[in-house]
Amino acid sequence: MKKITLLLLFFVFALANNLVAQTKVSGIVLDKDNQPIPFANVVFKGSNTGIVSNEDGRFYLESPNNYTALLVSSAGFSDKEVTLEKAVNYDFKIVLSEPQALNEVVIFTGKTSKKNNPALDILRKIWERKRKNGLYLFNQYQMKKYEKVEFDMNTIDSAFMKNKLFKGMEFIFNHVDTSDVTGKTYLPIFISESLYDVYGDNILKKTKEKIEANKTSGFNGNQQIQAFVKDLYSDYNIYDNHLKFFDKSFTSPLSKTGIDVYNYVLKDSAFIDKKWCYNIVFYPRRKNELTFKGDFWVNDSTFAIKKINMAVTKSANINWVKDIYIEQEFDVQNDSVFLLTRDYMMSDFALNKKEKSKGVYGKRTSLYKDHKFNIPKPESFYKPEVNYIEDTEIYAKTDEFWEENRFENLNKDEKGIYKMLDTLQNVKRFKQLYSLASILGSGYWEMGNFDFGPIFSTFGYNDVEGLRIRAGGRTYFGRNDPWRLQGYTAYGFSDNKFKYGISGKWLLNKKNRLIISGGNRRDVEQIGASLTTTNDILGRSFASSAFFTTGSNGKLTNINLSNIAIEMEPAKNFNVLVGLSYRTLESASPTFSLDYYTTLPSATNPEGVVKSDVRQSEANIQFEFTPNRKTIGYGVERTEVDSPFSRFFVNFSYGLKGVFNSDFAYEKIQLLYKQPIIIGPLGRSNVIIETGKTFGTIPLGLMSVIPGNQTYFTIENTFSNLNFYEFITDQYTTFQWNHDFGGRLFARIPVMRKLNWREFIGVRGVYGTISDANRAINASNQPYNAPENVYWEYNAGIGNIFKVFRIDFSWRGSYLNAPDANKFAVKGSFGFYF
């Protein structure tokens, strides 16, 4: 979600240099009936520079050298040589014909054979040797890495330049360039260069990168964009079976499962850097799958890749991305060692995939050199730092330093990008656009060192408050603030009451992230909205502030919560928190009761003694482990990189009876485990397990309510067919499994293929009980029902409807005869996803 939001920001304020390429050609490859020929091989004659046409037969090819002819070939057609009469040739129509003579041998047509195919024989050799090539040959390795990342607004035309949006910023169009991959014009809006020292140990299976220098222009210092860039360009290895881009798993053309999804054709062989290599072209067997088209050159003895070019097919079921182009080059270090020296990736982000639609290029170029091998480091060297603290000197290197240390020189126009972008940030019009984009991206309106918001929480509605308005804000001096204060106030027009919340936190030690925090909140809350709870002062319960609900949502509670806590991170992604809290709970509605017996009914006192509010002091200690989580920044609040990671959470709570007139003594344990599972081309599953138990006697306000969902929207960790307070427990275990097929099933159905819809299935269940003691003190009007026979429901859904909408259908699997049982539910959700 963060990534899409930031791309939309680029569209809003994307506001090139002119590389001199000697030969440019674009066009379309057709058959004799003027039908496009997809995946045709187009090469400059006398070179290894080429490309594979897309599914519509279109191609663009560019080289800094002078060429006078193209060679065009495709399985099932005769090869054709096309003369280039000038250096720049656009909109070529190249017609290929079927073989006319018997001596014109064509081995493969359409889908290539899985038998007697020499390309597959070579592919099997690659599989056998992939763990014996390159860096895998050595126990340890280290090298220097230079990385350049650039974002550019593309398809710039005269109408776009005259748009009133750019009034006062017209000078930026002096920096328009042409892409050597797509042939489109583009305008740089962000550029960053970095130098790293890279270390790896194949025995320990550990790697480490140490940044030496960074130079950034454009949106320098913006934490969200920094996180976006880091997450967008995750590392990959072309030898892996699946390559992950934009949270999706693409089948690699070198994968052992590639035979089932790709066609392979052995096209050529030649010497490259004095090594005899085979050229293999690959293209997908089916449309709408997460695959590539392209070609690679592989050595005939080591079966190591020398060069590979690949592009995501246009029909791949991925939103907002029109093209992904990848190019890797490997240099021969000696007779048997092929090492990656250049890695280039370009993505074309766009609102749609039409040929002339405007979008944003995201480009990363990585260069490697100065390799050293078998220099062991202690295991402690690879241990990740809990809180990496940036050295400001990294970002203050001089122009002279960069001239001396970057691996390849910037041309004069690339150097001009820095100056143009730095100048742009002082333009009033650009500042206005940047402010608007920042509001859309973060949800806060920046006002000096104070941010107003989040603006998306301004309005809500429930049966108790009626229409609810909310206003708040936070201190913000920069992305690495050591302290932060934030708060809000709200007003309900039906109960005519003001609510508020205020909290603060302070980072005492940056190394182990020692943080103290505290706050107070008085508000209306749906306390049955989540099983695994925390004492988050500024948490917002969607269940009590949604605009529309199914049935009444009047079972709300007035809560007055205060807490203090101290937390630290003794090891990377392992967090420990100790806290104290005090809360009072009472019903917010005359139709809902939290009453409980302080004295049970007896012969001498048949009505017993009833109390309506709860006063409770509580101490807790919680542990959270999030392996593989990535974060940006080192201040009191960090930004998580938007990538899936596991989560283990354990919380122990102790009720402190008598402390500040607290009512109950108890012990409670809660555990949560969340695991994303990527299953190659079959999509991604999410498994969530929650379990908990309370030891002691407690009233309704402190019980574990199984979270229902009476909104019209899908909410994680809730049950779509349950109403609020339908099941109540003091011990519980839940299981939830959801799977996203990513459109793989619909891609096999011709009628559905073009819709690019995606399939979801899931099942969730809960088992829970209530002790006799807790049943005995219940004096509320809420019946105690526990899912002792296991409640479960299952769902199926369709996502990616109009690219932003998902609809889920849910069926109750048990307790079908319960009063007011909701046997079928329809929920929806909105979101921008890749």
From TrEMBL:
Transmembrane segments: none
Protein name according to UniProt: Carboxypeptidase-like regulatory domain-containing protein
Signal peptide: 1-21
Statement: the UniProt record of this protein carries the keyword Hydrolase: yes
InterPro entries named in the record: CarboxyPept-like_regulatory, DUF5686
GO molecular function, one term: carboxypeptidase activity
Keywords of this entry: Carboxypeptidase, Hydrolase, Protease, Signal
Stored SUPFAM superfamilies: Carboxypeptidase regulatory domain-like (SSF49464)
Organism: Flavobacterium hydrocarbonoxydans
